[in-house]
Write a structure and sequence with these properties.
By secondary structure, the chain is of the alpha+beta class. The chain has one domain (2-133): Hypothetical upf0131 protein ytfp (Roll). Helix content is 28%, strand content 40%. It has helices at residues 13-19, 64-73, 108-120, 125-133; strands spanning 2-6, 24-39, 44-62, 80-87, 90-97. It has a five-stranded mixed beta sheet with strand order 2-3-1-5-4. A hairpin with a 4-residue loop joins strand 2 and strand 3 (44-62).
Length: 140
């Protein structure tokens, strides 16, 4: 079993269960010194280094088969690459965009999936709204 940190649409419990049937939500956690952004032609969620900031998300336990399914969904290794970090002595995997393209706002449909994920994981909408402020003025 592997530990996986979700911060975008994979926060949505039903969507995650469809993608990775045997995954298990453990708890909400924060990744320090990163911030949530939206970029690429999709306006997809991404994280980038930012000292003093935090990205809130979900810690899941997933299988190797689930990781392979997520690799396909996340367009690994072309759109996203894997990043590993330590959380309470556990090695945790997440996805981070390979190319830091310009910021782009998410589509309403995609944003609604993320918002449901924030509710499912009992995350504060405040942190999502802060991330959205940096792309609000941009055009799709």
């Amino acid at each position: 079993m592997l530990y996986y940190f979700a911060y975008g649409s994979n926060l949505h419990h039903l969507q995650m269960k469809r993608r990775c049937p045997n995954c298990r939500f453990i708890k909400k956690i924060a990744l320090n010194n990163y911030r949530l952004t939206f970029r690429s032609k999709y306006g997809a969620a991404d994280i980038e280094k930012k000292i003093g900031k935090k990205v809130y998300g979900a810690l899941y336990v997933i299988s190797k088969a689930a990781e392979k399914r997520l690799d396909v969904y996340e367009e690994y290794p072309s759109l996203y690459k894997k990043k590993y970090f330590r959380y309470q002595k556990k090695k945790v995997m997440t996805y981070i965009m390979s190319k830091k393209t310009k910021l782009v706002p998410p589509t309403l449909k995609y944003l609604n999936v993320i918002k449901q994920g924030y509710k499912d994981c009992k995350l504060s909408m405040k942190s999502l709204n802060i991330a959205l402020l940096s792309v609000k003025h941009l055009q799709r």
